[in-house]
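ok so I'm stuck.
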Amino acid sequence: MKLTWKEIIKEAEANGETKYAFQAPIIPKEIKNFKYRLKIEFPEQLFSLYEETNGVIATLYDMDIGELIWPSSKVVEENLKFRRDKEMRRIYAPFDDLLFFSDSGSGDQFAFKIVSGLPCSDIYFWDHEDDHRIQIAPTLDSFIRGWISGKIVCK
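replied:
not stuck anymore, here's the structure
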C-alpha cells in the first residue's frame, strides 16, 4: 500500500525534533494561477502532494522555522522573481530549466528540472553563491525523506 505524502513526512520526522504542519489542500483557483502564470504543468509528484497539503511548514519547539515545501502561490512568485529579475539574470545562468519549490533557509533552493518545457521527477539543488546546480534526488519522495533525515547535505 502506497503511503500518502503526509504519512511519508510524519514517518520521516519521527526521528528528529523538527515537526511538520500541513496546510489545506490546493484549490482549483490556485491550480489555474500556477499553470497560467508559469506556463507549465505541475510536476506530477508536487501536484499529488498539493492535493493533500498546499505547503508544509517546519516547526521546532512550536516555532515556525521555514517551509519544507512552499505553497503553490510562493512557487509561482519565487519562480517569476528568479526568471524576471534583471540582476539575477545578469549574475546567474537562466532559471527557465528549474522550478523552485523549496529552500534550505540559507539562500540555496531546491527545484524540479524542466526539460523541453515539462517538469521531470529529478530534484536539483541550486547554490546561490556560485550558481552550482546538481541533482540531489531522483524523486520528491526521496528528497523529502533525505532532507528530513539529514542524509541530503548540500554544503
